[in-house]
Amino acid sequence: MTGTDGIRPSRAWAWLAAAAAAALLCAPGAASATGRCGKHPWCNTRLGPDARAALLLEQLTADEKIGLLAGDEPFGVAGGEHKHTGTSDGVPRLDLPTTYYSDGPVGPRQGRTTALPIPLALAATFSPQLAFQHGLVAGNEAKFKGNDVIFAPTVNILRTPLNGRTFEAYGEDPYLDTRLAVGWIKGAQSQGVIGDVKHYAANNQEGRDPSGHSGDPGSPLGGGSEGSRYFVNEHIDERTLREIYLPHFEAAVKEANVGSVMCAYNKINGPYACEHHHLLQEILEREWGFKGYVLADYGAAHMAGPSLRNGLDFEPWPGLAYGRAQVRAALLTGQATQAQVDDHVRRVLRTLFAYGFFDRRAFRDDDSQIDKPAHARTAQRIEESAITLLRNRGILPLHAKRLKTVALIGAGADGFTTGGGSGKVTPFTFTTPREAIRKRLGPGVELRYEDGSDADQAVAAARGADVAIVIPADYLTEGADRKCLTLECPNAHGDQDSLIERVAAANPRTVVVLETGGPVLTPWRSRVKALLEAWYPGQEGGTAIARVLFGDTDPGGRLPATFPARESDLPTAGDPEKYPGVVNEVFYKEGVLVGYRWYDRKRIAPAFPFGFGLSYTKFRYSGLRVRAAGTGATVSVRVTNAGRRRGTDVPQLYLALPQPSASVIQPPKQLKGFRRVTLGPGSETRVTFPIDRRALSYWDTGANRWRVARGCYRVLVGHSSRSIAKQATIAVGGASCLGATARVPEQPRPGAGDGGGHPRGDDDGPD
Fold first, then answer.
1. What pLDDT, on a 0 to 100 scale, did the predictor assign at position 409?
2. Three-class DSSP category at 669
């Protein structure tokens, strides 16, 4: 471990290097790497990554070690054709190759790429299987653009939908976030690249710009000055950290074996995230057993001494905190030790050995290697599974043969909608909704298109049409939060809410298809016939939207975040200490009541709840069974397609945990399982949810451990967080619970930081 004592790691690894060298002398024959390692002792693939790293570390000079702490690419970080997001030049003398880094969560930001649906759209699929495919495509293209590490996935929890990076992550629930993060990392790392889960931890706001213009398209990054991510200090209690903001990172380490972790800009309870002993060393390294390396977000490293002492292994850019002069000064003044430098370099080297970096040829930067048609099909499948039907008053699916005139209106109808920052990508190809709808309608149907910039013309086009389809779009970006939740923040496309109101008044058969990066207000929702959320749909979004509109496929999405009825209902609303902060101090007063937990506890009716999404068919649940299983339980329910069409459903398991004391507030329910199933008309299947010890636990701050409280646990199975179809009760620890269908015995006392595994939410099978 990197630590403040400094000496023991160096001695341990010197001993390991000596032992490895001795083993080499005694070995009957060394197995040399077939890649680019050379003919050095550390190239023996019969040795483990620890031994190989120790041997290489022993041969590095003090100056070479310092040089490996920081990146070497000062100008190309903005991306571009054949430009990596970051580099570490290696040590040619010892055949240590250059390491190349790339964004990101939507695909490589390095010239053109397969523009995948945004991660929040992926979250709407509720499918770890599709998360694997999303990660596989992004990882494959990062590889074929010559990169070794991909800066993804982004897993920060949606604390407020005003956050400019809402579109980059997986929504408001830590369990959903966990399952998708694990799937994505496994998919990306299956391609030979190293994943980089980010941003550790609680990077939940970018900063608000009072003018509201920093989030406009084309504006420079980082303009959100109030509660800026660069300076904000977030006051978060330990229970909230453990239950809400850390589980997805824990699963990335323990289940997905992620190779690297990116520490965030912000401070947490005082220290910067990249200088945070508790987060980086006590939790990440010691409790979770992380053996990869920690790298800083760009500009998130500050001082060499605190970073070296507290767990930062690598600064990709700009290389100021870990510049040679700063590191030497920290060593000379006793702020850090050579042993700590050695340990950081060792962690980087060990990771490179563990993930095959030395034992393969360098990845070539050549787009011709990419299977673009196959990746396009994956992007389309994900988007079709993400599109979420929020309202349907008998108008969808549309029937092309019954239509003579269609009005198509809005900024999203004839362009590529995406966010800004590290999630901004340029597609290889793109089919607009306008093109796809035109093709799907066929000849003989008039398509009237208006971009919505002139509301009078849009109304004229809508009036008298058989159906009016409005596709508004918003814009979210890294570096600045949005000023409000309406479609006018930022006001890049005019007054889109008024446009929808006027079109709906002119044509009672109005369908709205949102292309947004997160939840928005929908004040007109009761005045339109149908409402779909398509998110930022990626390069195949137009085709996917058309197929859903015309019933070629079922809208498969469920909301990964609550859509509020009013902005004043947000958990952070009305209190500047909660958000955006006062003098860069933010207090997480809501605690564990994030997202739907807040709305449930406060009994606030949202516009559309977490987990909600309609189908073109109907699903019925029956036969709920709850059985004790070891120190946990299993829950199963029969799902029946009671309609006349093939469709997709996502049954969801929630638990209501007992309140062990007055000071421990429990949400009314917490997601603990889900299954995505696709069934033909009249078909049924039984889905099973495992409940392990961790699912029954809360973080006991006083004892510094996960704890299962004695009491009655309600089991809730439903279509969404607000639509519960079946209920049961589990009695835990000898509690007397009326009508309990299962009894779980007293739990063994876990050690600090131990809470068992994570319940899974894998697909029952392919869609």
1. 98
2. coil
Kind and range of the H or E element at 141? helix 128-144
Which pLDDT does position 761 carry in this prediction? 42
The rounded distance, in Å, linking the Cα atoms of 532 and 558 is: 11
Instruction: Yes or no: say if 585 and 267 are a contact pair by the CB < 8 Å rule.
Output: no
Q: How many C-beta neighbours within 10 Å does residue 389 have?
A: 22
SS3 assignment, position 358: coil
Helix (H) or strand (E) segment spanning residue 263: strand 260-263
CA atoms within 13 A on the CB side of 249: 32
C-alpha distances out from residue 449 to 252, 412, 433, 462, Å: 46, 12, 11, 9
Give the span between the Cα atoms of 686 and 673, in whole angstroms: 14
Q: What is the pLDDT of residue 747?
A: 66
Active site residues: 297
Neighbours of 68 (CB within 10 A): 24
Please report the pLDDT score of residue 32 as a whole number.
Answer: 58
User: In whole angstroms, how far apart are CA 117 and each of 20, 27, 85, 121, 583?
Assistant: 47, 51, 21, 6, 36
Q: Would you report the helix, strand and coil content of the chain in percent, each value rounded to 5? A: 30, 20, 50
Q: For residue 270, how many C-alpha atoms fall within 13 Å in the half-sphere facing its CB?
A: 6
Across the chain, mean pLDDT equals 92
How many whole angstroms separate alpha carbon 247 and alpha carbon 243? 6
Question: Which of 552, 451, 547, 465 lies closest to 509 in space, CA to CA?
Answer: 465
Helices (H) and strands (E) in the chain, counts: 18, 29
Own/partner long-range contacts of 76-83 (Cβ < 8 Å, ≥24 apart) = 77/298, 77/317, 79/103, 79/109, 79/110, 79/111, 80/110, 80/111, 81/110, 81/111, 81/112, 82/110, 82/111, 82/365, 83/110, 83/111
Cα distance between the two ends of the chain? 44
Query: Per-residue pLDDT tens for 653-712?
Result: 999 999 999 999 999 999 999 999 999 999 999 999 999 999 999 999 999 999 999 999
Which tokens in the block code for residue 713? 């646990």
The rounded distance, in Å, linking the Cα atoms of 390 and 331 is: 59
Q: Where are the alpha helices (DSSP H) in 427-507?
A: 433-441, 455-462, 496-506
